[in-house]
Amino acid sequence: MIYTITPNPAIDRIVYLEGDLTPEKNNITKERYVDLGGKPTHVSAILEQLGDTPNRATGFSGELNKAELVSIFDKYHMNHEFINIPDQRTRESIIVINNSGGSYMITERGLKVSDSDKAKLYSYIKENIHSEDIAVVGKPAQGFSVEDFRYLIRLLKEQNAYVACDVAGEYLTVAIEEKIDFIKPNKHEMNDLFPGDEPIHQKFNRICEKVPNAVCSLGSEGALYKVENTFYQAVPPKVEVQSDTGAGDAFVTGYIYGVANGYDISDRVKWGILCSASKVQHYSSCQINKEDFNFIENNLKIHEVI
Ligand code: ATP
Ligand code: MG
Ligand code: MG
């Protein structure tokens, strides 16, 4: 079973404007829709679209607007079991998209979890997540410190699960220190971790010393990975991009799908590219279309990085 653990999910309200956002003006909307926010939930939604991969989304959710969150989960046919936080709302994010491109994101800090909420999550993990399971962990909610995050990773490893996460900054540092099984920093997250003008694959190699199968994603330039002592870059073909929000989560989904199916690193990366280069061709942050895969696979280029 693949468990995605989202401590701070979000309801995203995406608003397309007829013009560009202007102060002191009535900005008229062209279109609006509601989508899923909070990274690991995207992984569950995309796994459902891939099919044949038992998975369950868990984490914390606010009781006050739970019905709306569940209605979005249901839209993606997700299997979910979230721990209720009484008297709180799951955060909402407003994403305003200008007609001429560019966007604004306005978000809330989200759930504040107590020690007893955390204890419920830890018990859930102890009861449900075991060896053969995969856990994809997201960035913590308020009240969940960096050291709590370290504890969460250790707990999942004690349960013998394969542990992956897609986090940045100090959480990424903890994930590396704890020798998590899989991380996928993008190039900005890598540069924040290792400032300086060393080539990216050398920075990446410092991560590989602790997390041998890590991947560094490079946006439209694809992804960097290491097999034995050689670095490779897998580059997707040029596609028509509708939105790259969630591209990273789609990559993680494809990679984890490969782990669940016993694929080697090159095939895991290939599945990461298939899912993410499909995702960018769709507006929703967790929409892929398997019909996009053939074109991507047939035009995917892999080269050595020296
Ligand atoms: P997120 O915003 O979801 O956190 P990220 O910044 O972590 O994403 P990126 O490195 O931007 O992740 O992208 C992840 C993957 O998505 C890339 O490895 C690539 O396969 C695919 N991708 C991103 N942008 C494009 C694009 N313009 N064309 C094709 N594929 C893309
Ligand atoms: Mg990016
Ligand atoms: Mg990312």
Automatic annotation (TrEMBL):
Q: InterPro entries, alphabetically?
A: PfkB_dom, Ribokinase-like, Tagatose/fructose_Pkinase
One Gene Ontology biological process: D-tagatose 6-phosphate catabolic process
Annotated catalysed reactions: D-tagatofuranose 6-phosphate + ATP = D-tagatofuranose 1,6-bisphosphate + ADP + H(+)
Cite the GO molecular-function annotations of the record.
ATP binding; phosphofructokinase activity; tagatose-6-phosphate kinase activity
What keywords sit in the KW lines?
A: ATP-binding, Kinase, Lactose metabolism, Nucleotide-binding, Transferase
Superkingdom, taxonomy of origin = Bacteria
Class of this enzyme: transferase
Q: Which PANTHER family match?
A: 1-PHOSPHOFRUCTOKINASE (PTHR46566:SF1), 1-PHOSPHOFRUCTOKINASE-RELATED (PTHR46566)
- The family this protein is said to belong to: Belongs to the carbohydrate kinase PfkB family. LacC subfamily.
- Name of the protein this chain belongs to: Tagatose-6-phosphate kinase
Native organism is Oceanobacillus sojae
